[in-house]
Amino acid sequence: IKKERSFTAFDSDGEEREYTGTVRFLYSLPAIKMYEQRTGRNFFDDNQKALTAYTQLALATGVNGRLSALTDEEKVKLMPLLMEPDFMNFLTEVIPCLYGEVENGRLVQNELTAETASLAPWFGDLIDIGFFSDLFYEFNR
Q1: Average pLDDT over residues 16-29
Q2: What stretches of the chain show up as alpha helix (H) in DSSP?
Q3: Model confidence, pTM
């Protein structure tokens, strides 16, 4: 998964600047292992809990579109998911593990890249229904 992100940060002179860049995420065995090591929980169990929370709310609100093709109106109906602990915990803990940086032509995922993602100014922008849709699609291809 590639996402173009724009964010405002301060440069070395203390001036506020707008930055744009591509961030990359990869569903991989190292990412799953890192998730389990960092959280002490099973990746697939947590993914299932998040998906169950989504499914229950979707049924309750009448959202029956495909997760990968939700309309803006359907996404608004699903906003309460952002208050659901199983959903939010999974999203906030899995994103750093899936994040990777290109080094010498290879995508690297490790503790350092996970910490970088956790502290990145764009991290909060990915905590939404749309990115969960992207992740779920990637997990089930």
Answers
A1: 88
A2: 29-39, 43-61, 72-77, 85-98, 111-119, 129-139
A3: 0.82
